[in-house]
Specification:
Blueprint (H helix, E strand, L loop, with lengths): L2 E4 L3 H12 L8 E4 L3 H10 L4 E2 L3 H7 L2 E4 L3 H11 L8 E4 L6 H5 L5 E6 L10 E6 L5 H12 L3 E4 L5 H29 L4 H20 L5 H8 L5 H13 L2 H30 L1
Parallel strand pairs: 1-2, 1-4, 2-3, 4-5, 5-6, 7-8
Antiparallel strand pairs: 6-7
Keywords: NADP
GO biological process, one term: L-proline biosynthetic process
GO molecular function: pyrroline-5-carboxylate reductase activity
Length: 278
């Protein structure tokens, strides 16, 4: 099996490095390219046996499984320009949520899937969100799930829950990280704790909490219940969070979905208009 990556931005680079470091595949069996070739060459500097191509066509010819890691608005042109090189025996994998497997299947004759990664995959943890196109062969489904299992827990999702699943799995580290940073900043502002001390305590708390959940010592509700002793100090803090932050994620989800639908609409228009011009 040979892997190809078109686009070596944040997520493309995370996938390549994670696959190599997890021993999912040998670096010599991976070929990458990027519009700014120096970014692909920087990745090669970290993994010397990795192959770098000057053009997308070379990566497509090389790969059995092709990961498309470009921005959503670049997708259609990239696929149209290289359509003749993408045989029906290949698997094309999108990592972006606004483009559906069906849209790609309408354009290409090959196997199609979507695998939305998370930054947590860089630590060979967290989930990846998998959706298979209607024509994706069982053999390729098994290969992709096996590959993603080296760096994550693959979770198969439906099109109808793509955005919310991505909010939790992919955007979640940034959302929760922001809240923890606010906690650290407030601790420093309101007490004599230094920023380094607060950051250390908060980071270790998050790591420890993750291990409790991973080992199923507690669920989220039972963890809260155990720490929040009735009439205690934690309970007073929870009251404030309930008053001020209780609905904050309702608003976060509403806004992310609004933005998602805006992007989907633009992408759909792009596919429809350009499809008519073909």
């Amino acid at each position: 099996m040979k892997l190809g990556f078109i686009g070596t931005g944040n997520m493309g680079s995370i996938l390549v490095s994670s696959f190599i470091e997890s021993a999912a595949i040998q670096p010599s069996r991976i070929m990458v390219t990027n519009r700014t070739l120096s970014k692909a060459e920087a990745l090669q500097a970290a993994h010397p046996k990795l192959r770098v191509a000057a053009a997308a066509e070379d990566v497509i010819r090389f790969a059995d499984i092709l990961f498309i890691c470009v921005k959503p608005h670049q997708f259609f042109d990239l696929l149209c320009e290289n359509k003749k090189h993408i045989s029906k025996h290949k698997l094309v994998v999108s990592i972006t949520s606004p483009i559906s497997c069906e849209q790609i299947e309408n354009l290409l004759d090959c196997n199609v899937a979507r695998a939305i990664p998370s930054i947590t995959n860089r630590a060979l943890s967290g989930t990846s969100l998998i959706t298979f196109g209607s024509r994706c062969h069982t053999e390729y489904q098994e290969k992709l799930l096996s590959l993603m299992s080296f760096i994550s827990k693959p979770v198969i999702i439906g099109e109808n829950v793509t955005r919310i699943s991505s909010d939790i799995a992919s955007c979640g580290p940034a959302f929760i990280g922001y809240l923890v940073q606010c906690f650290v900043d407030s601790a420093v502002k309101k007490t004599d704790l230094t920023k380094n001390e607060a950051t250390l305590l908060a980071s270790e708390m998050i790591i420890g909490m993750g291990k409790l959940l991973e080992k199923e010592v507690f669920s989220l509700p039972s963890l809260i219940e155990k720490v929040c002793v009735k009439g205690g100090i934690t309970g007073e803090g929870i009251k404030i969070l309930n008053e001020d932050a209780g609905e904050v994620f309702d608003r976060v989800i509403e806004r992310t979905h609004e933005k998602y639908h805006e992007e989907c609409e633009k992408i759909s228009e792009q596919f429809e208009v350009k499809e008519e011009l073909k």
